[in-house]
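Lab notebook, design round three. We kept the backbone fixed and only want residue identities now. Task for the bench partner: fill in a sequence for the structure below.
Input structure tokens:
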């Protein structure tokens, strides 16, 4: 499934020229940000000196200053703080040296660059990533997860988990399993704006199983 989701990145990027200009999608992209070979959905906000390459950024996701994102598929309604790195690639450890002179011609040893294919990083919907966090290449973070500031994420993160530390470990779940299942079933991040507006009263309150039931009975998009 992860591979299937990541493969969508290449397909969506191929459609970039057919997409409307970012301004017509009501995106806010600071002029000092660097965005290359990337698809932005509606209302994306990218602040100054952020760098995003070969990625897809979902609706209303916000990316903080100096954050760096590569080869990633990021869902909708994500809050990515400043100085966050997503898709960080480690050096190969199985060679005599971990230095890049073995695969980068700029160091004068090899004649051609060797390209290591990215595994692809998947960030779900409604994910909050705290400042200074590092998400390694190939990681999948589930919907609704929270990554504490300064964390280094080296393993997949389950939906609605709160994790923190170096390496990051589970602190607790945001909600009990019944509520988590209900929120995942609701898929509220896929709703049209008019649906969100009509359910704002439910979304404005602390989550209970009663609220989740109402979202699923009246709000689910089929």
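Proposed sequence:
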């Amino acid at each position: 499934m992860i591979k299937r989701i990541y493969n969508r990145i290449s397909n969506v990027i191929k459609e970039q020229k057919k997409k409307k200009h970012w301004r017509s999608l009501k995106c806010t992209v600071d002029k000092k940000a660097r965005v290359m070979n990337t698809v932005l959905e509606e209302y994306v906000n990218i602040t100054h000196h952020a760098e995003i390459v070969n990625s897809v950024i979902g609706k209303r996701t916000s990316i903080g200053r100096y954050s760096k994102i590569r080869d990633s598929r990021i869902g909708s309604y994500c809050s990515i703080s400043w100085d966050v790195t997503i898709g960080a690639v480690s050096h190969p450890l199985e060679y005599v040296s971990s230095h890049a002179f073995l695969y980068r011609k700029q160091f004068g040893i090899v004649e051609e660059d060797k390209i290591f294919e990215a595994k692809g990083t998947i960030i779900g919907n409604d994910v909050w990533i705290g400042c200074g966090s590092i998400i390694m290449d190939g990681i999948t973070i589930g919907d609704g997860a929270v990554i504490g500031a300064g964390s280094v994420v080296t393993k997949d993160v389950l939906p609605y988990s709160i994790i923190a530390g170096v390496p990051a470990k589970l602190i607790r779940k945001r909600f009990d399993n019944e509520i988590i299942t209900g929120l995942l079933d609701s898929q509220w991040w896929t709703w049209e704006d008019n649906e969100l507006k009509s359910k704002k009263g439910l979304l404005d309150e602390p989550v209970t199983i009663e609220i989740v039931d109402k979202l699923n009975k009246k709000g689910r998009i089929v």
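Keep this in mind before ordering anything: Residues 2-14 form the longest helix (13 residues).
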